[in-house]
Specification:
Layout: H1 13-27, H2 34-50, H3 56-72
Transmembrane segments: 37-69
Keywords: Membrane, Transmembrane, Transmembrane helix
Amino acid sequence: MDEQDPKHQDHDLIPDAQEEVKSMLKQGLDHPSTKPVLAGAAVGAVVGGVLPVVTWPIGLIAGAGFMLYRRLRP
């Protein structure tokens, strides 16, 4: 097993996500995470609308959440 710690091991995900969302709300489209998260939400909504089990709101939330996670933990 690798002895090195993961890149973001010293931070908790929830406080990092809260801080990122707050700054996204303050800066709007000028924030570097806003556009990728909105694109992920749109893709998730489309996929959720196509799949028979998942509805578009669940897809929207899942897509946005996934892209936010990818921005916080590359």
